[in-house]
Each structure stands twice: as C-alpha cells, then as structure tokens.
Write a structure and sequence with these properties.
- InterPro entries: HDOD, RNase_Y/CdgJ.
- Residues 13-206 form the HDOD domain.
- This is HDOD domain-containing protein.
- The chain is mostly helical and 281 residues long.
- The protein has 17 helices and no strands.
- The longest helix is centred in the first third of the chain and has 27 residues, at 69-95.
- The mean pLDDT is 90.
C-alpha cells in the first residue's frame, strides 16, 4: 500500500469527538459568533478543561488568568483557539490507541517536544499565527500511528533507526514512504488547513527557501525533537544544515533555548493532552 491508502484505511480509527466537528463548522462559518463557538465547546467538559489548561500554560504567556471559554476566545482569537481544539481533538482520538509494536511513550514525548519547539521558533522568528507550527509539530509523526495500526511489524522495524540511518530514511526503505507523507495524507482527509499540512508534509525537504519559513522551521523542529529524544544517537550539529539557521537568522544558542523551553513545559502539556501516558513519569 502507498501512503494515501494507509491514510484512507485509518480515517475511521481516528474518530474525532462530535464537539470538534461542530466547532470546526462554526469556525468556518461567516455568521457564527464567538458566543456560538463557546457554547459548543462548553457542551464538552473534557475539551473545555483541556482548552483552559493549555490557554493558561506558559506556552501562551498570557498576562492574566483566563477562566472562561468566552474570554479565551477573545484573548487568543479564533485562529489560535481553533489550533488548540485541533491539538486536543487529535490527541484524544489517538490516545485511545494501544500497541506493543512501538514505544508510545517515546512517540508522545517526541511529538509534544516538536510542538513546543515549533511554537517557540515560530514566535522567535516573528511568524504570524505561530500556533500552526505547534500543531504541525504535534502531528509531525502521526503517520507512525497509522502504520502501527495496520502493519505493526513494519512499524516495529521502522523503530530500528541508528546513527547511520535516520528515522525517515529507514521509513522510506521499509515502507516506500515516510511517516510525514502518510501523516500529510491523513490531515488532508481530515481537511485541516494547508498552513498546518504543508510544513508537516515537507519536514524532510532539503530544498531550502527563505520565502518558506514555515517549512524551514518544520525541518528544524523535527530534528531538534529527535536529537532531544535520542542524545545518544544524534546531535543538533549532525542533523541540522547550518544554511537553514542562516536563512532564519538563528544561532545555535537559539536552538538550545528552544529545546530548554520544550523540556520545561513538555511534561505539563503531556499531562493535559495524554494523561494516560504522563502518569508513568
């Protein structure tokens, strides 16, 4: 099977909560008010609780406590709140999956680290709506869960990366496509915005262009998260092309700060998005 076929088979496995579907419809409506959106979110206590916890986390650095969904909408805006709802909905759908073929603890920790690194770098580089890089980072490896459910032996084999063969290189060898390609197909089937899907789809691209900062940051995000997850195998210097730093006007010290940020905030975000995993830490 190719990446699209895996994604098509997985759509039913990753069932979004009804509240997400309704929120998405309202977000895309020209007539829906912020109160309409808040009312739908409030009907789902789990979504409401997680949304407020994330909105009040250090990730958003709000100057005061946000105690209601309505206020969160006003302060964060529809775009940021939509991205938060997406991240919660996807995490909820995926957290029900279980398997012995891959290390799910590693999967979630690395995904959340990538999300936080992506948001940090997007903010640092002055990109508008940096939350889209948070979502792209969170979902950057969701193709692994897709393959895990349909071809567990292949997913297990793809975990055997090493110093000599990076994860995406091994995926290409074993599957004929990368998890990034499979994940992008799934996100397209979910009809997520191109601003989220495109950086994820091109995270392994080495065609660097200064006019595509989202793609450059996505490239950095997955490599920094990987180096942070496996310091015994990889380092920033061996994974990152210095030209990318030059294009984004970044220094090595900026990358270290991004990793420090994800290490500081990662456990809290993990506890919100996937408490079943975080309880073991």
């Amino acid at each position: 099977m190719n990446a699209l076929q895996y994604a098509q088979n997985a759509v039913e496995l990753f069932a979004f909560p009804d509240s997400y579907i309704r929120v998405k419809e309202l977000m895309e409506s020209d007539t829906a008010s912020l109160d309409d959106i808040a009312e739908v979110i409030l009907l789902d206590p789990v979504l409401t609780s997680k949304l407020l916890k994330l909105a009040n986390s250090a990730v958003y650095r709000l100057p005061y406590q946000v105690e209601s969904v309505s206020k969160a909408l006003l302060v964060l805006g529809k775009a940021q709140l939509y991205n938060l709802v997406v991240s919660i909905a996807v995490s909820s759908a995926c957290s029900k999956l279980s398997s012995s073929s891959i290390d799910l603890e590693r999967f979630w920790e690395q995904s959340i680290n990538a999300a936080l690194i992506g948001k940090y770098l997007a903010n640092f580089c002055g990109l508008r709506q940096p939350d889209r890089l948070y979502v792209s980072g969170l979902l950057h490896n969701i193709g692994e869960l897709v393959v895990m459910q349909q071809a567990p032996d292949s997913a297990a084999q793809c975990q055997q990366y090493s110093v000599d063969i990076k994860p995406w290189q091994l995926q290409q060898t074993v599957l004929g496509f990368t998890y990034a390609a499979c994940g992008a197909e799934l996100l397209n089937l979910w009809q997520l915005p191109d601003s989220i899907v495109e950086p994820l789809a091109r995270q392994h691209s080495t065609q660097f262009n200064v006019s595509e900062p989202d793609v450059l940051i996505s490239y950095l995000t997955v490599r920094l998260a990987l180096a942070n997850q496996h310091p015994d195998l990889y380092s920033i210097k061996t994974l990152v092309d210095p030209f990318v730093l030059e294009l984004l006007h970044l220094e090595q010290a900026d990358l270290i700060k991004a990793i420090d940020f994800c290490n500081t905030e990662g456990l809290f975000i993990l506890s919100v998005l996937n408490p079943r995993i975080s309880t073991i830490y």
